[in-house]
């Protein structure tokens, strides 16, 4: 491998490292969500990526966006990281909630009962928590993790990363297919027909009851206009 290619892969905040951040936080995020649901709702999440493993891609994508967007701000001090985390984290959480309603007709969280919320999608205390995470993660933890990643053989890391990337794409595709199929069941009700083995597979292994176990906070919702 050319030295230029190696340097590009090894750079402080490149695609190679961002993939491992995505994978790490997909796992960490699922653990946090599982514990949070147990504490607040008294249930264990069945979780999260259906039959392929326990991951929360929303957390993984959020970590990638936060890292890639705020990494250059670390030299400007904690306040810049905090403010960036508040704004970026709040925007990301709002858009995730909005897209879930527009595409799936569901909500995965509702902050309506919390103070200083916007349409129940985000609220100020949680946005400030995003800011705190940005200060700790981008300012302290990520540089350490970046150094640890640099110690692994690059060729082996790229091969393993490629295998895991395919695995995660299948993981995400299956989760999306099951959720979209649930939208069809909800829209068509008793009139819906099964046209092929693919739809039969989704209806058999991921009925609405199963999805509710996997996503216990998921509720039907109208599109916010």
TrEMBL record:
Name of this protein: ABC transporter permease
Keyword terms of this UniProt record: Membrane, Transmembrane, Transmembrane helix
Keyword Transport: no
Origin species: Candidatus Limivivens intestinipullorum
Ranges annotated as spanning the membrane: 18-39, 51-71, 123-139, 159-180
Pfam families tied to this protein: ABC_trans_CmpB
């Amino acid at each position: 491998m050319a030295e230029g290619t190696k340097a590009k892969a090894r750079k402080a905040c490149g695609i190679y490292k961002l993939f491992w951040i995505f994978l790490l936080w997909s796992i960490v995020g699922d653990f946090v969500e599982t514990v949070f649901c147990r504490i607040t709702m008294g249930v264990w999440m069945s979780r999260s990526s259906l039959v392929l493993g326990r991951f929360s891609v929303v957390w993984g994508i959020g970590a990638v966006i936060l890292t890639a967007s705020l990494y250059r701000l670390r030299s400007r001090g904690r306040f810049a990281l905090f403010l960036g985390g508040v704004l970026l984290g709040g925007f990301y959480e709002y858009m995730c909630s909005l897209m879930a309603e527009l595409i799936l007709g569901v909500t995965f969280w509702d902050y309506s009962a919390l103070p200083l919320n916007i349409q129940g999608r985000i609220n100020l205390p949680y946005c400030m928590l995003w800011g705190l995470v940005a200060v700790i993660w981008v300012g302290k933890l990520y540089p350490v993790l970046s150094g640890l990643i640099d110690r692994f053989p690059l060729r082996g890391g790229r091969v393993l990363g490629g295998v895991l990337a395919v695995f995660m794409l299948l993981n995400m595709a299956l989760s999306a297919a099951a959720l979209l199929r649930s939208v069809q069941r909800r829209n068509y009700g008793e009139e819906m027909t099964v046209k092929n083995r693919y739809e039969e597979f989704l209806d058999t292994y991921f009925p609405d009851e199963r999805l509710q176990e996997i996503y216990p906070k998921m509720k039907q919702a109208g599109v916010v206009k």
